[in-house]
């Protein structure tokens, strides 16, 4: 229930505070945090003090504010992606050992691919996919293969609302990419995010044949070997799906199918 002059509820303001930390920034001064969350300084101060009392935020020397360990603990303890990551990691490690390149795991959240795990090592090519980072569906092979495995209604809803800020991709071409990914069983994008890399991803299907995740690799553009990469990824994806099927409880991942 709203209890402020702006009409925001307490929950709205708390979420704005927590979400105000930009990627890669571990601490902010209270005044900066209030400005980023678009809250009055007095309101931000009161909420930060209350959240810090529960360990969800930490207040350091000089009044700097950072996300608290309690928040990390709660998210990781109950995250619906925890079992997915645990099932996938052994297979991701195998793929990385063979390729010596980046391996990532993503789920679909709205019209974006949300990356929940990534493995990389020194010498790997650049990979813009970061854990807890997002990419629009149309610029990531993981996003494309996930959308290609959604229902026809979901795909049409996505395509009807699609617009490319760069103007490089039109609805018809994106529809063709989704159709190609659905037919081939994998998606590939060359030089879209980085001109020197190639992204390839396959769907991870649960026991009901729903695409719950995408397993992908990012490799140098000059070293693409689809005839070797795709079967290896598909074998690993089937293994992840089997491990998920062994779970005693069905995992419900947030998907656009339920929107």
UniProtKB/TrEMBL annotation:
* Ranges of residues in domain HTH iclR-type: 8-69
Say yes or no: keyword Mitochondrion present. no
Supply the source organism for this entry: Arthrobacter humicola
**One Pfam family of this protein, by short name?**
IclR_C
Q: Give UniProt keywords alphabetically.
A: DNA-binding, Transcription, Transcription regulation
Q: What is the name listed in the Swiss-Prot or TrEMBL entry for this protein? A: IclR family transcriptional regulator
The record's annotation in SMART domains points to: HTH_ICLR
Which residues does the UniProt record annotate as the domain IclR-ED? 70-246
The superkingdom of the source organism is Bacteria
Point out the signal peptide segment: none
Tell me which InterPro entries the record gives. GAF-like_dom_sf (IPR029016), HTH_MetabolicPath_Reg (IPR050707), Tscrpt_reg_IclR_C (IPR014757), Tscrpt_reg_IclR_N (IPR005471), WH-like_DNA-bd_sf (IPR036388), WH_DNA-bd_sf (IPR036390)
Which Gene3D superfamilies does this one have? Answer: 3.30.450.40, Winged helix-like DNA-binding domain superfamily/Winged helix DNA-binding domain
Which SUPFAM superfamilies does this chain map to? GAF domain-like, Winged helix' DNA-binding domain
């Amino acid at each position: 229930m709203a209890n402020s002059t702006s009409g925001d509820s307490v929950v709205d303001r708390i979420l704005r505070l927590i979400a105000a930390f930009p990627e890669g920034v571990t601490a902010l001064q209270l005044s900066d945090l209030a400005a980023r969350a678009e809250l009055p300084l007095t309101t931000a101060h009161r909420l930060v003090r209350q959240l810090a009392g529960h360990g969800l935020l930490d207040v350091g020397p000089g009044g700097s504010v950072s996300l608290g360990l309690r928040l990390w603990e709660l998210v990781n303890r109950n995250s619906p992606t925890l079992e997915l990551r645990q099932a996938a990691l052994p297979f991701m490690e195998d793929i990385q050992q063979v390729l010596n390149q980046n391996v990532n795991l993503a789920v679909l959240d709205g019209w974006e691919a949300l990356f929940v795990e990534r493995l990389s090592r020194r010498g790997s090519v650049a990979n813009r996919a970061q854990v807890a980072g997002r990419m629009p569906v149309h610029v990531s092979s993981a996003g494309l293969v996930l959308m290609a495995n959604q229902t026809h209604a979901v795909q049409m809803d996505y395509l009807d609302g699609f617009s490319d800020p760069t103007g490089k991709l039109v609805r018809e071409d994106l529809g063709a990419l989704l159709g190609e990914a659905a037919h081939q069983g994998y998606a590939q994008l060359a030089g879209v995010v980085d001109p020197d890399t190639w992204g390839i991803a396959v769907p991870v299907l649960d026991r009901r044949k729903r695409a719950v995740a995408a397993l992908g690799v990012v490799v140098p553009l000059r070293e693409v070997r689809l005839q070797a990469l795709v079967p290896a990824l598909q074998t690993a994806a089937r293994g992840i799906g089997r491990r998920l099927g062994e779970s005693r409880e069905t995992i419900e991942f947030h998907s656009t199918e339920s929107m």
